[in-house]
Amino acid sequence: MAKKILIPVLASAVLFCAVAHFMSVVWPQKSLEEKEIGSSDAPARVLIIGVTSDFKQAVIDRVTGVIKSDSLFIRIAGIKEIDKTEPPEWDAILLVNTCMGWDYDNRVKKLVQKNNDYDHFILFTSSGDPDACTKKKKLPGEIDAVSSASVEEKISVVTDTLAAFITKHLGASK
User: Fold this and answer.
1) Cα Rg for the chain, rounded, in angstroms?
2) Mean pLDDT of 107-117
3) pLDDT tens track for 53-63
4) What pTM was computed for the model?
5) Bridge partner list, 74
6) Which CATH superfamily is domain 29-172 in?
7) DSSP 8-state symbol, 37
């Protein structure tokens, strides 16, 4: 009886993993373009790291425009740099992500789990189902998170929310 249940469950798990891998190969995510804004000697530091799309890039451009100041260094990096990220060096880290398979990117998840004592992560996810990847039970700790469908009408709301989260974290790190 247990074999009758175990075999379909294992087959389903293998199929799910195969489909997820296939999707990441067929539909690869482009990394954010490397960019630095402000002086690296500035007293406050924000890292924006992850993947991009037209929607995400519009949001990131607006967020950096809103939070930009003489006392702030902003570094934008692609998802491939995530393994080199040292959270204590940053007052806030904005993780830009695409929800796939009803979960957030494994590279992002690994960084967050490895640094579970760092409390300045902000997760920005685009998804057709805005709640799929940002439910509190999926996120470790008290991560600030915002998710949105990639539609132009949402850019201002998402920008305002992310800018407020970053500002909150900059104030908390002083």
Assistant:
1) 18
2) 85
3) 899 999 999 99
4) 0.79
5) 37, 46
6) Flavodoxin domain (3.40.50.360)
7) E
From the number of C-beta atoms within 10 Å of its C-beta (0-12, 13-18, 19+), residue 170 rates as buried
Whether residue 130 has pLDDT greater than 90 = no
Residue 157 one-letter amino acid: V
3-state secondary structure 59-113: HHHHHHHHHCCCCEEEEEEEHHHHHHCCHHHCCEEEEEEECECCECCHHHHHHHH
Pairing of β 121-126 and β 144-148: parallel
What value does the mean pLDDT take over residues 157-161? 93
Residue 125: name the closest of 150, 156, 157 by CA. Answer: 150
User: Between the CA of residue 109 and those of 46, 83, 174, what are the distances in Å?
Assistant: 19, 11, 26
| 149's tokens | 């469908």
Q: Which residue, chain included where needed, has tokens 């300045």?
A: 120
User: CA dist 93 to 2, 51, 69, Å?
Assistant: 46, 14, 17
Among residues 29, 15, 35, the alpha carbon closest in space to that of 77 is found at: 35
- pLDDT score of 143 more than 90: no
First CA to last CA distance, the chain: 60
The letter for the amino acid at 116 is N
Question: CB–CB of 125/97 below 8 Å?
Answer: yes
Residue 99: exposed, middle, or buried by beta-carbon count in 10 A (0-12, 13-18, 19+)?
buried
